[in-house]
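G., the chain you wanted modeled:
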Amino acid sequence: MSRTRISVELRQRVMENGRFRCGYCLTSQYIIGPLLEIDHYIPEAQDGSSTEDNLCVACPMCNSHKADRISATDPDTATVQPLFNPKNDRWNEHFTWIEDGTVMQGLTPIGRATVAALQVNHPDAVHARRLWVSAGWHPPNDGTQLGIRRKHTRVNSLERVSRSNYFNGSRLCIGTPGPESSDQNSKC
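Predicted structure as tokens:
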């Protein structure tokens, strides 16, 4: 939990710049239930600031495993490496998707250390990605990463039309009537 209050405007800029995706595992806000979080790359506990250049988007799983870390051990070389920095590092230089887009593989010591520390290939995460891949929702295909290519998806369309809903309190309903509907059985 951040000790410093992050303004709605700053939170929105960070989310938009991060494309409403976890900067570490690329999970989209539009396909998970819990809201994405704002992560301090350099934690406040280590005197990290709450400024835009130190803030990035993280899913709850990556953020909780990262905690106050800024480095971890590469399992291949047993050397301590800085964690991947979503603000400064290029995702596709450190990671790739294997197993048809369900498993994140580290390509560099930084990538491998980050994959291990954040436990991005936890069986529950891999299972969720398998479902997202089968629905055409994952992995992103906008140049964030290389490798697996797929056609334009519904999630990419939803990302474009619903970004403002994230901050104005509107609910986004997929395949159900909108909140203004008189259908008592519809839920968002």
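Residues 145-188 have pLDDT under 50 and may be disordered.

Shout if anything looks off.
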